[in-house]
Each structure stands twice: as C-alpha cells, then as structure tokens.
Amino acid sequence: MVKANLTVISNFIFLGFTRYPKVEVIIFVLCLLMYLITLLGNIILISITVLDSHLHKPMYFFLSNLSFLDIWYTSSALTPMLTNFVSGKNTISFSGCATQMYFSLAMGSTECVLLSTMAYDRYVAICNPLRYPIIMNKRACVQIAAGSWMTGCLTALVETVSVLQLSVCGSSIINHFTCEILAVLKLVCVDTSRVQLIMLVISVLLLPMPMLLICVSYAFILSSILRISSVDGGSKAFSTCAAHLTVVVLFYGTALSMYLKPSSVDSQEIDKFMALVYAGLTPMLNPIIYSLRNKEVKVAVKKLLIRNPLCAFLIPQSKS
C-alpha cells in the first residue's frame, strides 16, 4: 500500500451528503438560510453594541466578540460546502483544507473559552454587583477576551500541525462536508496515538473544564436569584442566564458527543449532522436568543429602527 504525506496531496474530495441524494438539496437550502441569518443577526448585534452607549458593558463586549467569532466560524465551515454544491465540484486544495481546518478549530476552541468567561461575567454581575465595575473593568475585559482568542488559536495550531504531518494511504476522499479534523484522521494509515493524545488533552481542557466552570457559576447565580426579593430583578437575571445556558447546552452537548466519544465508535454520518448543529445552528441562534430574551437589546434595536427606518425591512421585530 502506497503511503503519502498529507502535504503531498494536492486536492481533497468531499463526500458530503451525497449518500442522501433525496435530502441533499434540502440540506443545502437549510444551510444557506442558516448562514444568511447568522451573518445578518450577528452583524446587527455587533452594530447595536457599538452604536448604543447603553450597551457598552462587559456582557455586551463579550457578546460582540462571540458574534464576530460566530461569523468566522460559520463562514469557515459552511461557505466552502455551499460553494461546492453550486459549482458541482466537491474538491478543495491542500492549503484550503489546512486553512479551513485551522479556522474551524480556532473559532470552536475560542468559543469554548469565551462562553465560560461570559458565565463568569454573569456570576460577578449577579452575585457581586457592588464589586462588578471594579472586577470587570475595561482592561480586565480586554485581557480576558484576548486570552480566549489566544488560547483558541494556539491550541488549533498545535492540532492542525500535528495532523498534517501524518501519512495517508492513497485515498483523498473525506467523508464530510468540511475538513473536519476527525474526518481527515480517517485517511491516515499510520499510528495516530500521539495525535489522539494531544487532541484528548486539548478537548478535556476546552470542553469538560469550561463546562464545569459554567455549571459552578450558574449554581451560584441560581442561588442568588432565589434570594432576590424583587420579582422584576429576579426575572431579568433569570432571563439573561437562561439565554446563555441555551447556547451552552447546544454547543457543548454536540461538541462533547463528537470529540470525547470512544475511538471504537464509528459515527461519521452522525458527526456530519452534529457538525451542522455546532457550526451552523448555534451561531444562528446566538443573536436570536440574546435579542429575544434580553430587554436591553430589544430597546437598542427599536432605537436603531427609529433612527434608520430602512432597517425595519432587515430586522424582524418581536413582541416585547
């Protein structure tokens, strides 16, 4: 059997959803809608957090970071698939595959860390409101956000370089719609124990540990909410936390089921649909969840509509 280094392969072929010809068009339409809604929703959310001075708070600073991240995340995963479907060419160059793999890993890893920092921000805001402006000052927020981005980008670089140095046994067909790292590893015919160990360590650091921090933060938050005598105050705090938890469950649930499942479990077909959830559905839901469940965002959107009537055609209005 002929072995070749991954860097020698000039092009990869995506199998995508070709095994499901009857639903392939439906999947394309759904992915296109998710991508467009993701772009529109996150761009609007970033715009209002920048333009409205009332949203110049740590929570919305992290939220705008999340929106910016989700735009890149979805673009790196869905844009090549949509382009290939329209052109009819399910191929990607080696450099394109490496770039796609890196950005998908970097954005996903950064989101893992960023969601935990957002939970910490809510913990300080609700459990230590008097010290909140001191703890979560502008400098601290910038440092936390920068740390999240650096962690995601560096871990992604380690994983990507580790995989691309391996050898494959002639096949260049990726059973996925993107250069997902687990799908690319299926092409490798040499010992991958070292790479799998690296991925396991990084996955444990970026998935269960941040999720544990989020659970602990929200345990304290829930305890504080139950002690709030004001009905309006408790309702507002609970609404904000419920929105964040919805995103957390969707994102971490699908990521955990993919990256920490036993190596003996072969579920590539399921993994494709799981990837659509955390790379397409979650980024689309982020701005919808935060805007529909947050009164401050609703007010900011209404102000934007009043100042710019043309935006009324682009922003769906919800009932208060």
Automatic annotation (TrEMBL):
Transmembrane stretches in the record are: 25-48, 60-82, 102-120, 140-158, 197-222, 242-261, 273-292
Superkingdom of source: Eukaryota
Q: Tell me, in one coarse class, where this protein mainly resides.
A: membrane
Bilayer topology annotation = Multi-pass membrane protein
Give GO MF terms, alphabetically: G protein-coupled receptor activity; olfactory receptor activity
UniProt KW Transmembrane helix keyword: yes
Keywords, ordered alphabetically:
Cell membrane, G-protein coupled receptor, Membrane, Olfaction, Receptor, Sensory transduction, Transducer, Transmembrane, Transmembrane helix
Matching entries from InterPro entries are given as:
GPCR_Rhodpsn (IPR000276), GPCR_Rhodpsn_7TM (IPR017452), Olfact_rcpt (IPR000725)
Q: Which residues form the G-protein coupled receptors family 1 profile domain?
A: 41-290
> Would you name any one GO CC term?
plasma membrane
Compartments in which it is found: Cell membrane
Q: Does the keyword Membrane apply?
A: yes
UniProt function note: Putative odorant or sperm cell receptor.
The family assignment reads: Belongs to the G-protein coupled receptor 1 family.
Q: What is this protein called?
A: Olfactory receptor
